Every structure is written in C-alpha cells, then in structure tokens.
Amino acid sequence: MSPGAIGVKASLADGIQLARSAGFEGFELDIRELAARVREKGLEEVKELFYRTGVRPGGWILPVDWRGEEPVYRAGLAQLPALAEVASQVGATRVPTWVLPFSDERPFKENFDWHVSRFEPIVRVLAEHGCRLGLEFIGPKTSRAKHRYEFIYTLGGMLELCEAIGTGNVGLLLDSWHWYTSHGTLADLRRLRNSQVVYVHINDAPAGIPVDEQIDNVRCLPGETGIIDLKGFVQSLNAIGYDGPVTPEPFSQKLRGMPPLEAAKITSDALLRVWKTAGL
After folding, report:
1. Residue 264 burial by CB count (10 A; 0-12/13-18/19+): exposed, middle or buried?
2. What's the CA gap between 64 and 7, in Å, rounded?
C-alpha cells in the first residue's frame, strides 16, 4: 500500500496498521519519517511495527532531488548514505523514482548523458547498502507532445539507460499504465529478467479514450475497466519470477474523498481480484 497513491495521510505506525486492516501485505515508506522514528525510538522498536502486524516494508521514494540545481543535488546525495543504511536495516531495499519523457533544454543524447551522470553516484551509494534503484518511464503521448525534445518513454529505452549507468543495481519501475500508454506488449514483459524489474505499479485506464489521448493523472483502480490487460501483465511478471512489491497507483478522485480505511480496502480488494483473475 502506498498511502499517497490513494489519497491517504498516515504516520508510519498508523499506516502499517491501516495496510494490515485493509488486507495489504506491504507498506511503502516515507524514508525520512522512518529514519526519524529510528532515531527517536530505536531500530528494534521500528522493526517490531512490521513484525507484529505481518506487514512487510515496501519501497521508498528516492529522496534526492536529482533534477535540481547542482548544490541541491549534492546536498541530497550527501544525506543518502544514512537514509539508505536505515532502510537496509529494516529490509526496505527497493527505491523508485520517475524520469520525464521530455526536455525543453537538452536534446536526447545530451539529456541521456546527463541522466547517467546524475544517477550513477546515487546508485553507487545505494549499492553500498544493498539497495536497488527503479526508474519509471512515462508513457502517455500527451505527457511529451508539447515539449521541445522527446526523451525516454518506453520499456526498451529505459533499459538502455539502466545499462548505460552500468552499476548492476538499477532497473525498471514498471507501471502497467505507462506500459499500456507506451504501446508496450506482453512479449516485451516476457523478455525481461527478474533482475531488471525493481518495482511495479498497477492500475487501469478510463474507458472510451484512445490510448494516445490518455492523460497521466486520470486513472482507475486495478481491473476497474479492463482496458489494460492486467491479467497478462501480472502473469508475465510471475513468469519471469518477479519477487518485489506490486503497488496500486490509481490516482482516483473517488478514493481521495473516502475515509482512509474504506479507500485502502477498496484498493486492496481490487488488487486481489486481479490476482484471482490471473490465477495467482
């Protein structure tokens, strides 16, 4: 469960309990809150929050502002080792972030090299603490159409960036929405190796809208419309042995107006129906 993805605000302790009550098996972390809680209460007490509920630590969003100006980037990079160490100690070793599919300043090759230069120091720090970085490509044509330079927006393109970074602990944040809107195929998924997939988001698309007209922040619960082939999506991930978190990210205004437990339970139930449909 990712609280922010379903419009829920909750502390670490309350969020873990909410995830358990709603039927989730894992909880996505706010790494700075986690680190502060460890400083205040101690590592063992924080681990106990997970142990006593049976909820597993999920991923944590990369806290470095790698898109920012150099001093801001360097300041975040300097803080990363301590945060990665705490995350590793609680067993949270998967770190997602997303990459814009355009630039208004840098042509493709220049932008590609810039991303490599920004990510390489980050992933080296993460590697020292047994953590992996997942990079999300942004698929919708509407997200890049009005910008000067196109950048990576497909699974294959993002794998090329991962390969260029070259540290061995960077792979995909694979989102069913971006896979669908980038015209990805099940064959693309089945060619992947487990080691290439760090994190997974799952959601559905509104009906009645052509794929190239879909808008990124207008989505649906997993399996809500059937527009995205989620059965094939999760079966393909299962076939390659994917063993990480699968996190619903519906960006639903309907959910945001609900009480937290109701929103979390509806989301959990939707995900469970996808598993059942896929026979998993």
Report:
1. buried
2. 23
Global pTM reads: 0.96
**What's 64's DSSP letter?**
S
Report helix angle 260-278 to 12-22, nearest 10.
50
Query: In the chain, how many domains are there?
Result: 1
Residue 247: C-alpha distances to residues 28, 203, 209, 228, 233 (Å): 8, 9, 24, 16, 13
Judged by DSSP in three states, 36 sits in: helix
Tell me the CATH number at 154.
3.20.20.150
Listed in sequence order, the residues at least 6 apart from 68 whose beta carbon sits closer than 8 Å to its beta carbon are 76
Range of the domain at 63: 3-278
**Residue 253 confidence class, pLDDT cut points 50, 70, 90:** confident
Q: Decide: 73 and 108 in contact? Cβ < 8 Å.
A: no
Give dist(CA 156, CA 193) in Å, integer.
13
Sequence-separated (6 or more) residues with CB below 8 Å from residue 42: none
- CA–CA separation, 174 vs 134, rounded Å? 8
pLDDT above 90 (res 105): yes
